[in-house]
Design a protein that fits this description.
Length: about 650
């Protein structure tokens, strides 16, 4: 490509000013690349025309209405790399970085639109073959300008560089000593989002910096597809850190500490791509999806940043690594320049229009550039404005104080100071008190949760007991109704006793082997039709012996009924409670709250009732069992129900 003079007029002039006050809009420059050989070969028409140095005219093929887009500068295909460097205003950003500001330049556009070319020139023609000086991009030109500028500053400056890429949502260090490995992105109040363990290399000469750039470029992920022979498959961020070497200087990589000095970051975004147009498959498609996702997140953040109510709305910078690392440049304290790149071909018009709309929106986003804390480094205009503001505030406060003195002449000097001290003391007390109350509230909440859990378990147990108790009247009434069928069926009827019983399973109520229920004589001993369907030992225990029990005897006329697992579990719980054996707790133990806590908070509310109810029901069941037992005494040779029951 031929070098050419500066474009008509001076589109950069407006960009060569410092931040215009507290809010500074993102500067957007548009670069239209020349038609590629392939596009010319296909006979593509150009849909874009530059009108003046700031406006782009879009003429859709097929005769739609023309559209116009206005940017800080519009650079057509005839512009050289030097033109772009001079017109885009990157020198202003370099200057601000030297003054301690955090500045970002990023290229944006469809894949193959010339983003990487604009930043670093054409792809390397071979290993170790340098880019011809006339084709070097904004980055190399800025490096040369910055080092020259630093050389003439008259005071020492420390320069460092880091270079990373975001590939498939993973941050990789392009300057790492070993092979690049994924690095975490962290956040701290002082630094915002930053990459942990990122290698930051100090350099002293342009050659050293160029070597770092070459190292990163050669390691960056790129692939070939239909629209670009050397398509970048990752977003790449090269950051230059500028600082004054002082004894207190903290390296910018130290987590939790803000970087000292300014920085200038160059971001080469991977291009948005339509997978169908690029013909991406497999790994290429995965990369394209991850690129598109992060660009979508970027677009979403930009849209929200445009919202006039944005102070209230949440900006989802955390949605992608890219938006995390650009958070400060987009909505924070940085100064940002966007170079939007487009192809002139009418075939690319949908993507071009989308880039133009995106870029138009971006130039309405504002940041609040913030320089170093030391007032000496502030731009003079900003410093003067702040001084004026502080003087006004001081005057206002003085007049208010005077008014107070005239209204309340008693409050003077020491008394005012006392009142202030007192207020401060009160504030501190409130803070401590609040902290204490918050802690107490947390404890109480956890106690309450435990109590609720306990209450649920008790309610369930009471419900179970009640269910069994209500089913008891269905037993045959002989005087008083025995609870357990075993107590109706004299144990003497079965000769096989535990541990000799084949099934070796005990009735949970009376502790008699359930082998009785599989006993051939069971039918004659227990009139089944008389047992209510809800009778314990009938539904819960009857139809089928436990899994370890032998199959029903051939003499049994009725087929065994399926018994659910819950039947067994419930019955076992009931039995264990009645015999007073230890039951495995099903809920965490009750908290041992302080005695002055309310019963509700300690989880006692509702539980006394339940516990009482539980006791009553247990008592009733025991009585019923005892009554049944006294009516049918077990024989000496058999273990009776009473032997299995421990006192209530
Ligand atoms: P992107 O990074 O947007 O995907 P590239 O920068 O890789 O696109 O450019 C795609 C191709 O177009 C490359 O071969 C590049 O050399 C060429 N190209 C881009 N912009 C220009 C330009 N202004 N002049 C000449 N060639 C260009
Ligand atoms: Mg690229």
């Amino acid at each position: 490509m031929e070098e050419r003079g500066s474009p008509d007029g001076d589109p950069a002039r407006s960009l060569e000013q410092g931040p215009e006050g507290p809010e500074t809009p993102i500067q957007v420059v548009l670069r239209v690349r020349p038609m590629s050989t392939a596009e010319l070969h296909r006979g593509d028409q150009s849909a874009l025309h530059c009108s003046g140095t700031r406006t782009l005219q879009v003429s859709p093929p097929g005769g739609g209405p023309d559209m116009a887009f206005r940017f800080g500068a519009v650079l057509d295909g005839a512009c050289t790399q030097e033109d772009v460097f001079r017109a885009c205003g990157v020198k202003r950003l370099g200057e601000l970085a030297l003054h301690g500001f955090s500045c970002t330049v990023f290229t944006f556009g469809q894949t193959g639109s010339g983003k990487t070319y604009t930043l670093t020139g054409p792809p390397p023609q071979g290993e170790g073959v340098p880019v011809p000086p006339s084709l070097t991009g904004i980055m190399q030109r800025t490096f040369a300008w910055l080092l020259d500028r630093v050389h003439h500053l008259g005071f020492p400056v420390t320069l460092r560089a880091s270079y990373l890429e975001i590939y498939n949502e993973q941050v990789r260090d392009l300057l790492s000593l070993g092979s690049p490995r994924p690095l975490p992105v962290r956040w701290s109040k002082a630094r915002g989002f930053y990459v942990e363990q990122l290698r930051v290399v100090e350099f002293g000469s342009l050659e050293a910096l160029m070597e770092l750039l070459q190292m990163g470029l050669s390691r960056r992920q790129s692939s070939s597809h239909t629209l670009n022979q050397a398509s970048s498959r990752s977003h790449a961020l090269l950051t230059l850190y500028v600082s004054r070497p002082t004894p207190q200087q903290v390296p910018p990589v130290d987590p939790g500490k803000p970087p000292v000095g300014g920085k200038l970051c160059f971001v080469d975004l991977a291009g948005s791509e339509k997978v169908a147009a690029t013909g991406s498959r497999g790994q290429l498609m995965l990369e394209a999806n991850s690129i598109n996702r992060s660009l979508l997140a970027l677009g979403h953040c930009i849209s929200l940043l445009l919202d006039p109510q944005r102070k209230q709305s949440h900006i989802p910078f955390r949605d992608s690594k890219l938006t995390k690392l650009l958070a400060d440049s987009l909505g924070g304290r940085g100064v940002t320049l966007m170079v939007a790149c487009v192809s002139p071909s009418a075939q690319c018009l949908p993507e071009t229009l989308s880039t133009l709309r995106y870029a138009s929106r971006a130039q309405r986003v504002t940041t609040r550039p913030q320089g170093p804390k030391s007032p000496g480094a502030k731009p003079p205009q900003q410093g003067a404005a702040e001084l004026l503001h502080l003087q006004e505030e001081n005057h206002h406060l003085q007049s208010q104080l005077d008014q107070m003195r005239t209204k309340a002449p008693g409050i003077h000097g020491a008394r005012v100071a006392w009142a202030q001290r007192n207020l401060y003391g009160m504030l501190q007390e409130f803070m401590l008190e609040n902290e204490r109350l918050r802690k107490e509230m947390r404890q109480l909440r956890s106690s309450r949760d435990l109590a609720w859990a306990e209450q649920r378990v008790l309610a369930q147990q009471v419900h179970e007991l009640e269910r069994h108790l209500h089913s008891a009247p269905a037993l045959p009434q002989q005087g008083s109704a025995p609870m357990c069928p075993c107590s109706m069926c004299p144990a003497a009827s079965c000769r096989a006793r535990p541990p000799f019983c084949p099934c070796f399973h005990l009735c949970p109520l009376c502790r008699v082997s359930l082998a009785h229920w599989a006993c051939p004589r069971r039918e004659c001993l227990v009139p089944q039709q008389e047992l209510g369907p809800e009778a314990p030992g009938y539904i819960s225990l009857s139809a089928r012996p436990p899994p370890s029990a032998p199959p029903p005897s051939p003499g049994s006329s009725k087929p065994p009924r399926e018994r659910s697992h819950s039947d067994w579990t419930q019955t076992q719980v009931l039995a264990e409670m009645l015999i007073g054996e230890e039951v495995v707790p099903s809920a965490p133990p009750m908290p041992t709250g302080s005695s002055n806590m309310s019963p509700m908070i300690r989880g006692e509310s509702g539980i006394p009732n339940l516990t009482q109810k539980l006791d009553t029901v247990t008592h009733q069941i025991s009585n019923s069992l005892n009554l049944g037992q006294s009516q049918s005494q077990p024989s000496d040779s058999m273990q009776g129900p009473s032997q299995g029951l421990s006192p209530p």
